[in-house]
Automatic annotation (TrEMBL):
Residues 13-129 form the NERD domain. GO terms for molecular function: 3'-5' DNA helicase activity; ATP binding; DNA binding. The lineage of its organism: Bacteria, Bacillati, Bacillota, Erysipelotrichia, Erysipelotrichales. Signal peptide: none annotated. It comes from Kandleria vitulina. This is Uncharacterized conserved protein. It comes from the Bacteria. PANTHER family: DNA 3'-5' HELICASE, UVRD / RECB / PCRA DNA HELICASE FAMILY MEMBER. GO terms for cellular component: cytosol. GO terms for biological process: recombinational repair.
Amino acid sequence: MVKFIPPYIGEEVKSNAEKQMYEILQELNLEDAYVLHSLGLPRHEDKKYGEVDFVIVCKRGIACLEIKGGRVECHEGKWLFTDRYGIQRKKTEGPFAQVTGNMYSLMQALRERFKNDYHFTYFNMACGVCFPDIYFNSYSEEMIPEIIFDNSTEDITCYINEIFDYWESRHPRENTKFSKEDIEEIVDYLRGDFCFIPTLRDEINSLEKRMIRLTREQYKVIDALRTQPRILIQGGAGTGKTVLAMHYATEQATQGKKVLYLAYNKNLINSIKKQFEEYINIDVINIHALFGEYIKIDDTKVKENPNKYFGEQMPEEFLNWVSELSETKLNELKYDVIVIDEGQDIIKPVFLFALDSLLKDGFENGEWAIFYDEHQNIYNSEYNDGMEIIKSYNHVFTYLFVNCRNTVQIAKYTSKTSGIEINNYMSENGEEVQTLVFSENKEFKEKIKTLIRHLREEQIELSDVLFLSPKKYENSLLSQINFKVNELGQNFDEKSSLPRYATIQGIKGLDAKIIILVDVEKILDKNFSKYMYIAGTRARTMLYVIVEQSYCLDHSV
């Protein structure tokens, strides 16, 4: 995997061409490679200050890239650059001379720095000029066609290898191939010369902007939803199930249909309700509240065995109530379309029988869409029986593979710790997952204080931070150290500037910019895999794990 330094492109970068090239370089496939953006060269040979837009350090050597955007022309040795606003700039030095000069200056700086290391005597240097906005078809004596990247270049990895091939042919000798350790040593030396260091807030906001886009497979699912009356959609965490479920519900509602949007999780439902306020024909409700709309909740049975009551007795009482309705009354209750989000918690026989009575033409001939992830099933012991029923109806099945929520680092960490494979994700690089270890409550308190202070210094809004735990706040370590939070639930305050707090069980279907996972050592071994999968995949851009030392060693957190 290629690592980027810095891991995000900062707000300070105004060049659209550089931003575009940063995106293109995300597709680079070179083992153990680094891409450094906007590297200053204070030791430039001909100027007091030079700058390389991108430096790539890999096993083959070091490559410098000069990026030029807009329209580019060269007349009688004079270069004319026109930006997207029509503003023109003239230069006597062209991009080819510029990048070549930067390449040789960087080579000299590295040879000086590593002069006592014999295998840095000869190493490969390469450079290229990139015009991501245009097809570049002008040629002059100064230009080098072999090192040009333009909007007709299809593969960035091939291009980088080709510029190495070109410069190696110009200097035919046996050059050093860098090891992983060599690469890291060079990068450590170079990283101090950056022109900007964006705050963590800038980095997170930049990353979020890049990740909010639909994938090709999501567009295919949208097409399927428009043409198929009954569809079953399986997808891992972060693949866009809720986004697509909401999109489908709104499309159906705008056609005048009466839509029921269901989920198991109250917190998810409360979040979605706010976004559907303008739609009077979409009912957004969790499964138990739906039954409670029609039958009186038996408080005695709830106290005796809440799981049995809400999972078995309540839906059975609802079915008995429905069976006594007249056909006219029943038809008034029915929905044209049912959308089930986080379906793994709802796909059980007794729930399906109850919902079947509320859907026009039932599950067999009616219109429905069910979105689910079997890896997040932590409530439903009858999932397989329910799935057998659903699959018996004539329907279309489709799968969402690409995780669009998590960075590469978060996805890989979550996959490793949970043992649940996340093989497909958008190649957006972010910060490494940070594990903070403590041995006693006093040390835990200090870790929390230090982390919150760091986030504040990095201009992070604490309301963008979500603490996750397997326990309710009153039973958490945060409560023991009197750390104040804004807990999701009945007393949640949307306007509060405090960090938010939720249980892992209660956060399914939701996410946050920054997740801080606590009380990890309180996760039961039987739940460890699913809880770590759910918790890790809630983090969009940053994940911190605070864990007791002995537990960390035993569980490889």
